[in-house]
Amino acid sequence: MNAVAADARGTMRASVLTSVGTVVVEDRPVPTPGPHEVLVEVAAVGVCGSDVHYYRHGRIGDFGVNEPMILGHELSGRIAAVGEGVDPARVGQRVAVEPQHPCRRCEQCKAGRYN
After folding, report:
1. Among residues 67, 74, 76, which one has the least CA distance to residue 16?
2. Measured between alpha carbons, how far is 32 from 39 in angstroms, rounded to an integer?
3. How far is CA 39 from CA 22, 44, 58, 93, in A?
4. What is the largest CA-CA distance in the chain?
5. What pLDDT is stored for residue 105 in this prediction?
6. In whole angstroms, what is the distance from residue 38 CA to residue 60 CA?
7. Domains in the chain and their CATH numbers?
8. Where are the alpha helices (DSSP H) in the chain?
9. How far is CA 77 from CA 28, 36, 43, 87, in A?
10. Model confidence at 4: pLDDT above 60
11. How far apart are CA 21 and CA 28, in angstroms?
12. For residue 81, is pLDDT > 80?
């Protein structure tokens, strides 16, 4: 999930990096959670160093931003909806998002330092 603020009309506001040095706030449709996913209503979001790199340089290492990208992956909020396979009792639960996808194979990951 990306950083969003939803309203009653089924839209959300998102900070979108459209090009190097340009961020615009856009209204976007609120996504529907797929199987084993949840929709988080964001309460707070941090500006990460990677967001700053994308803004200033349009890239981090080998990963370049080639199309508009919603910023804000360090967030907290409440589960607003759940997809198939997720316990409906989770709705309303407070969450903090851990956005990393560790490889779990390298020395750093094996030592618990995957970020």
Report:
1. 67
2. 7
3. 27, 15, 27, 11
4. 47
5. 87
6. 28
7. 5-110 (3.90.180.10)
8. 49-57, 107-110
9. 18, 18, 4, 18
10. no
11. 21
12. yes
User: What's the residue count for the chain?
Assistant: 115
8 A C-beta contact, residue 74 and residue 36: no
For 108, the token pair is: 């750093």
Helix, strand or coil, per DSSP, at residue 22: strand
CB-based contacts of 100, cutoff 8 Å, min separation 6: 114, 115
d(C-alpha 20, C-alpha 2), whole Å: 19
pLDDT of residue 115: 65
> How far apart are the C-alpha atoms of 93 and 90, rounded to whole Å?
5
Q: Is the pLDDT of residue 77 over 80?
A: yes
Task: Report which of residues 3 and 85 the model is more confident about.
Answer: 85
What are 8-67's pLDDT values in tens digits? 459 999 999 999 999 999 999 999 999 999 999 999 999 989 999 999 999 988 889 999
